[in-house]
Design brief:
Layout lengths: L1 E2 L7 E4 L6 E2 L5 E10 L3 E9 L3 E2 L3 E3 L3 E12 L2 E4 L2 E5 L3 E3 L2 E2 L3 E7 L10 E4 L11 E8 L4 E7 L4 E5 L4 E12 L2 E4 L2 E5 L4 E17 L11
Antiparallel strand pairs: 1-4, 2-20, 3-4, 4-5, 5-13, 6-12, 7-11, 8-9, 8-10, 8-13, 10-14, 15-16, 16-21, 17-21, 18-19, 18-20, 18-21
């Protein structure tokens, strides 16, 4: 399967307009944003766990990173509340689920295969003091990519350029970027060499951003 797999193209997806699709596990549904592959895939997805649902134990051969969008995500390593950012690098394993139910934004098979850095962070706790109406948290940075989180004041400008492409997920609020009105759940991908030029709406904006990573996009090794 290929979905939004041409990384030279700008893509905007309002995830709240997508139908939920069943996964192989009962009670776990998903909204696919981009994908290369079948059940083993380089994938960017919104995943919803119904209360008391879980996935079977598995190893993330290509790594996984995710944000808890609502509820509480759980596995044998602990409870992960809303606002948590997690990186589980290649070779890590777990049995994910949720007693109260949860929704996560998850990216699979997008790691350096030698990466072994595993962590969890509350994104808001990492925010620095705002500059020109934009508070920024650097969540992760390596030779391939930079992952950040931003709180943008109402009406403030948010500008970002990156040679290796830009990907953004709206966590809350609204902003306008290149004529597109983005809201909670909107996902934006800007190709290599592009720039993000946005203005936050009247409620401000909360945005997760990854830059530099698109040159490394490729199908999973199976």
């Amino acid at each position: 399967m290929e979905l939004n797999a041409d990384f030279s193209q700008r893509v905007v997806v309002h995830s709240d307009t997508l139908e939920w699709q069943a996964s192989p596990m009962p009670g776990v549904d998903r909204r696919m944003l981009d994908r290369i592959g079948g059940e083993v895939a380089r994938a960017t997805t919104i995943v919803r766990y119904a209360p008391d649902s879980k996935f079977s134990a598995h190893t993330h051969t290509g790594g996984e990173e995710f944000i808890v969008l609502d509820g509480v995500f759980q596995d044998e390593h602990g409870d992960f509340p809303e606002g948590t950012y997690v990186r589980n690098p290649p070779t890590t394993a777990h049995t994910p689920g949720s007693e109260p139910g949860t929704t996560i934004f998850v990216k699979l098979w997008q790691f350096d295969m030698d990466d072994r850095t595993q962590f969890r962070k509350n994104m808001a706790d990492e925010l620095a003091a705002p500059v020109n109406g934009v508070a920024t948290a650097v969540l992760h940075k390596d030779d391939r990519e930079t992952v950040t989180y931003h709180h943008i004041d109402a009406g403030a400008t948010f500008e970002l350029a990156a040679e290796g492409g830009i990907e953004a997920l709206m966590i809350g609020g609204e902003m306008t970027e290149s004529g597109d009105a983005l809201r909670k759940g909107s996902w934006l991908r800007i190709p290599e060499g592009g720039a993000l030029n946005a203005v936050a709406g009247p409620n401000g904006a909360k945005v997760w951003v990854k830059t530099g990573h698109l040159p490394y996009a490729k199908p999973p090794v199976v």
